User: Fold this.
Amino acid sequence: MIELKNVAFTYQEKIVFQELSLKVEKGQKVGIVGESGCGKSTLLRLIAGLYRPAEGGVTVDGENDPEKISQKVSIVLQTPMLLPLTIRENITMGHAFSEEWIRQVCAASNLTKWIETLPNGIDTYLGDRADELSGGQAQRIAIARAMCKNAQVLLLDEPTSALDGENAAAVLEALDHFGEDKTVLHVTHRPEHLVGYDRILRMEGGKLLEANASCAWRAVSL
Ligand SMILES: Nc1ncnc2c1ncn2[C@@H]1O[C@H](COP(=O)(O)OP(=O)(O)O)[C@@H](O)[C@H]1O
Ligand SMILES: [Mg+2]
Assistant:
């Protein structure tokens, strides 16, 4: 489903990966941990087709064209990117969805209560409110956007880091439920958020290690 083969990636001078390879089967739930700056966000962006590898290849569902890959992947970025549009447009990204589906993804992202307090509800223009928006609200809109797209691959980059405990627990449960029939890669600093996952990977020194059944770290097998 997802395959990275000998991927190299560099920001200007900074080498993040050399010869990075990984295979993720369809439907697998994969947790990724590792220290700040080791390249977890870069890895998700490469898989989502937002960055292109300098060397090697990334395929999702057999596809290697970044534009086609981006149709197959929903990503919740570590730093939400909201547009000066309405909440609805930030969630649908201009695509047509039923009111019922939009209602469901807002409920799953714990947005409903807040949206109901706004004079124009989901059609509130965010450009006027960007300063008033909390990090948690922005992150929940980003989660609703990823859910709304409903792609087969779900990439989560510390998706609840800006949420308070209660919101985080509810949204994580909704994400787990939502991801049940999907391939999920979830980057987090909180291993307890990865309970029940099929695989746990750790990124270190530009390489991926995988925890085996006795909790020892081994190079990922291909
Ligand atoms: N846009 C960028 N330009 C230059 N360097 C970057 C950029 N984004 C990330 N980096 C660097 O690349 C490395 C990996 O970053 P990142 O993938 O964000 O790590 P992580 O998500 O594991 O914290 C870090 O050293 C970071 O400073
Ligand atoms: Mg990161």
Remarks:
- The mean pLDDT is 94.
- The chain has one domain: 2-219.
- The two ends are 13 Å apart (CA to CA).
- The domain at 2-219 is CATH 3.40.50.300 (Rossmann fold).
